[in-house]
Amino acid sequence: MRILRAAQVLTGRPGEVIPYGEVAVDGDMIAFAGPRGGAGEPGDADEVVDLPGCTLLPGLIDAHVHLGFDDKVDPVTRQSPESDRHLLLRMAENARKLVSAGVTTARDLGARGFLDLALRDAIEEGLAVGPHLIAATRPITPTGGHCWYMGGEADDLPAIRRVARENLRAGADCLKIMASGGQMTPSAAPSWVQQYSTEEIRAVVEEAGARGKGVAAHAHAHAAIRSAVEAGVATIEHCSFFTPSGHRYDPELADVVAESGTYVCPTLHGVYWRLRDTLGPEMLDDWLHGIVALRDAGVRLIAGTDSGFAAAGVGNRTDGYVAGLEVFAGAGFGNAEVIELATARAADACGVGAVTGTVETGKRADLIAVRGDPLRRISDLRELVLVLVAGRAVTQTGVDTVTSSL
Ligand SMILES: [Zn+2]
To answer: Where does the Amidohydrolase-related domain start and stop, copy by copy (predicted)?
Structure first.
């Protein structure tokens, strides 16, 4: 057993701070979290790690990544020149970078060839370094629809159920459906067009639910957001209220989302400011104002970066996670709330809240320690001194490679 002592322990729930707390880690589990001295006599521990001036808190959760998002897809031939073998190695490198930023759980919402499952299992076996992965495998999308090249095309109810079941048979932890179009697939409907009806989305919810799993719905369009709520998905991704003339926040629809309790991952990321410089302030400001309005309407937001994508030539780095939290804070979210939506609430939304996301006795030892106090300064989350994934120390900051940073 190891005892970690810090200037304070944040449990992940808002307002829960244990001053001069300590956490005992026994194997891959948290054996104790509470005031100093509660974990037993230091002499009984194998090791006592003192972290003066540091904050211990739950490992961060990125609810929306694409470790295998292939930015090399040729929009003309629609073929990727990258082999699955090569892509899997790149995904492993992206996973290493992600955990090096303090992310100990990540939900991968779209990968081809079931490579996310291979990587997930390799990480759990200790063959690769990375966060715990919650893998959606192939996103369900119409033929030629948003991200069709990941292999999850389905145009009617029987086909939708078949792809859902094939994903689950392969070992998917959750399912992803592209309820609206998107920007980055040339043959796909644009973001403001609904791709699937409520009934079709509900079929995916049923298939996942029968196996105790949840559904993430990619939805930019108003109608797609509404259908996703009606169908009972666990999380809505983006929820950007996109129209042909930009983001048009709808307070009535936001109330529908809030009342349903559906979580929203707005995929607010750390390249917000660079994109704003590139695309102009109007669209990006409308988007951010919409996210703040969703929070004010009572919608349960969670952190997720959509890392792996590149928009307008701006790459969204896998290890840029904390920069996304800084955008939340800059938009007026309180630091305690930002930490909650990046830990406990994100775990609940991703269906792993019983296992991880908070620092408490009996949870998995997914922990980080940072120098400073992120309740006062959210950027202190950059000052990592320790990252534990199921009790294993994995901090590798400072290791650089020549591969793509996406
Ligand atoms: Zn995505």
So the answer is: 55-394
